[in-house]
Structure formats: structure tokens, C-alpha cells
Amino acid sequence: MPRQHGSSSNFGGTLPSNRNEGLRMPRFFKRLFKFPQMDFEMAIWEMTSLIIAPKKVFRSIYYHKQTKNTWHRPDPSFTYLLSFFLLLTSIAWGLAYADGFSRVLRITLVFIFVHFIGLSLLVSTLAYFLVGRLLGPGVPGLPGRRRQGLFVQPGEGEQLEFGYCFDVSIRAFFPVWVFLYVIQFLLMPIIAKNYFVSIFFGNSLYLLAFGYYSVITFLGYNALPFLHHTELLLSPVIILTILWFASLFGFNLPKHLAPVLWAGAGLRKDV
């Protein structure tokens, strides 16, 4: 996929004069509870675009890089909004497939802090150390290696930011929430049957969820001009497609896999 941008190191931006201004991560923590300053309208637009046209979500990062001198957006509005949606869906799953208030509360905590926040932190940490080092600039035609740091220092060359990895991870999780937490819940009485139509549509939800996750992850890192061979991040789509086709011969993912995934949250095994 061709990139429509150059490879300038600052994209017309001005480097901070003070070294402390290059520490970007503390800005994120300072804005954690400044709700009036959060751009929830932008977060809603991103959620809509992630399903319809995910490439649009990462086009605005160049303007952000020019004005803020960082790829990472220190705005937790997307995280808060998706956590709120997970709260609603966890209550729905709990009322339908759990017994008692304590189990509903447990499902809520697991959905938000394990499935969403925990998994996103794990994936972003792995991506920070693997993508930045293996797909960074190096020998032409081969994966390169580059020095990295948790915080961007002024005067240094472009580098992969941990905050940006987290931005990509939480946005890639949104389609997973749509297909596996919302649509699967609504269709569970139908797709949990052993009919071929049920298996086809139920298994296709998992293909769409994790396929979207891979594509959005690829688009996120492909938008960075200093990374190369990002098309390798699309390789899971091929594996997922093969597994999906093989599962059509009698393995119902919603019936067999959903109870395993949700068991740690306290849902009954007869989901």
C-alpha cells in the first residue's frame, strides 16, 4: 500500500527548546481526569471510521506530528468511551449468562481491565519492542534496527513511541468489541446451533473481528514513514482465513470458543 507522505524528520514542525518538553508520556497522565479537554466527538468519529474506512483514522496523525511533535495523541477520550461501552455490554452479558451481582461485577472488571486494557498493554508492549526494532530503518530491503526509548527526546531521529503503539492497540480492539461483544451477544441463541448456516455466520464473526484487528494494526504502523515492510503485519489475515475455512467443517466457534474466552470473567459454561 503506497504512502502519500514524505520522510522528513520533523514534517515542518519545530523541535522543543527545552529537553523536558520532549517527555510526552506525562502529558497523557496529566489529562486522565481533565474531561472538559477531551475530544469525545473525535473519538466517536474514529469509532465510526474504524468500521467503514479505517485508513482515515490515521491520516490526521501528520497534522498532529507537525503541531505537537509527537505521533502519540495524549487524549484518553477513546479509552474512556470504549471502556464505557464495555461496561454496558458486560452488564448485558452478566444479566444473560451469570448468576448474582458479584459475578456481573467480576465480568465488568474482566472485560474492561483484562480483555481491553490488559490485552492492549500487552500487544502494544510487544509491538513497541518488536515492530520498532525489526521494521525500523536499516539496510535497504531488509528489516532494520533502531534505538528506542519510552519517551521522545528532542533532537533525536524519529522513533516508535510506546504511546502510539497503545493508540493503535486500543483502536484495533474496537472492531473486536463490535463483532464479539455486541453482535455475537445478540445472535448467540442462533449462531450457537450446529447448523451449517449458524457455523458459517458465527465463525465469520471471529474472522471479521481478528481480521479487522490485523488490518487496523497494519494501517497504524504503515502510517509511520520510518517503518518498512509493514505488510508483514497482514500475515495473520492469511492464517485466520485458513483457520476459518477449516472450521466450517463442523467446529462452531461461538459454541465452543466463546465459553472458554468468557469463563475467566465468571460466565456460565452453558453460554
From TrEMBL:
A Pfam family (short name) is UNC-50
Please give the start and end residues of each transmembrane region. Answer: 78-97, 109-131, 172-192, 204-221, 233-253
Residue stretches in coiled coil? none
Localization: Membrane
Q: What is the protein's species of origin?
A: Rhizodiscina lignyota
Q: Which UniProt keywords apply?
A: Membrane, Transmembrane, Transmembrane helix
The record describes its membrane topology as:
Multi-pass membrane protein
Q: What is this protein called?
A: UNC-50 family protein
